[in-house]
Amino acid sequence: MISLLTHSNPLSYLPHSSPTPSISPFFTHTKTLKPSKLKSLKINSILQYNRKPELAGDTPRVVVITSGKGGVGKTTTTANIGLSLARLGFSVVAIDADVGLRNLDLLLGLESRVNYTVVEVLNGDCRLDQALVRDKRFSNFELLCISKPRSKLPMGFGGKALVWLVDALKDREEGCPDFILIDCPAGIDAGFITAITPANEAVLVTTPDITALRDADRVIGLLECDGIRDIKMMVNRVRTDMIKGEDMMSVLDVQEMLGLALLGVIPEDSEVIRSTNRGFPLVLNKPPTLAGLAFEQAAWRLVEQDSMKAVMVEEEPKKRGFFSFFGG
Ligand SMILES: Nc1ncnc2c1ncn2[C@@H]1O[C@H](COP(=O)(O)OP(=O)(O)OP(=O)(O)O)[C@@H](O)[C@H]1O
Ligand SMILES: [Mg+2]
């Protein structure tokens, strides 16, 4: 039996969602359920939500997953949120816009099935549907890679090419997808500009460290200059033991620094690395892990254009709680 209590050290900040339905109760139900009741909940029971999230906004929702600093979890977020959305019944096309260093195919376990890329489509060497790789687990999830690994951005390939691609995806016979997720390369050079051009919303992934935050702040400015006003953030690799020891910034600190709506908070979890190496995204794990549930909950919020709040939770001593999952 796994306890879902939420008590923690007062130095820690617990993310608290707005009162939308949630597949994971640790952020939302703590105000309504007594700890004794929460204690007895089995982790499986929290997946039994009683409705499908309502899709807000016009389709396709073109969302770029970006960061500034590299290695903070953009591809992990794209894979896990993408498959969560597909599992919720939405049609998803995930575009790996990382030219030369693509790895979304690896995380999804689809690398052996990528025969063509967008570069070949634009050269007229294949049709768009030949470059789309349909996931065998969820037929409403497709992967599209911009180019082959280790290749360079072809001459003339830029934002306009990606806008054309998004338009072509809208006009496909099987209908317009609900979500087009663009996995952005690190940095703020040509690849970044190309990846953000067709997007009308952004998910900014950051870790709670000062270097990632500085880069994230710069990226927010660039996104806004490009006309992307709907920017939400994911705080990844959060370690509550370090927050307690004041060795890591809290989620509340991060939110105050960046001033963005909070889409999700993902704990540091060795399962993420394991699932990456297996090509089996975390959200498919059974039983689910906390990081997997946090990704699912973020996907739910993305659908409904919802966000959560970081709040401080009072300590209740001598109880093992929610943060014990995080090693806290
Ligand atoms: N919550 C987490 N807990 C533990 N490891 C994680 C977590 N999130 C990501 N990682 C690991 O961090 C590494 C980088 O993740 P990922 O490739 O998703 O980052 P990225 O931002 O896409 O990198 P790049 O900028 O190179 O494209 C991977 O090895 C991944 O398994
Ligand atoms: Mg990546």
UniProtKB/TrEMBL annotation:
**What GO molecular-function term can you cite, just one?**
ATP hydrolysis activity
The entry's keywords: ATP-binding, Nucleotide-binding
**Gene Ontology CC terms, in alphabetical order:** chloroplast; cytoplasmic side of plasma membrane; cytosol
Cross-referenced InterPro entries, in alphabetical order?
Answer: CobQ/CobB/MinD/ParA_Nub-bd_dom (IPR002586), MinD (IPR010223), P-loop_NTPase (IPR027417), ParA/MinD_ATPase (IPR050625)
Its Gene Ontology biological processes?
chloroplast fission; negative regulation of cell division
Top-level taxonomic group = Eukaryota
A Pfam family of this chain: CbiA
Which residue intervals define the domain CobQ/CobB/MinD/ParA nucleotide binding in the entry?
Answer: 63-279
Query: What NCBIfam families does the database record attribute to this sequence?
Result: minD_bact
Family membership, please give it: Belongs to the ParA family. MinD subfamily.
Name listed for the protein in its UniProt record = CobQ/CobB/MinD/ParA nucleotide binding domain-containing protein
Q: Which organism is it from?
A: Daucus carota subsp. sativus
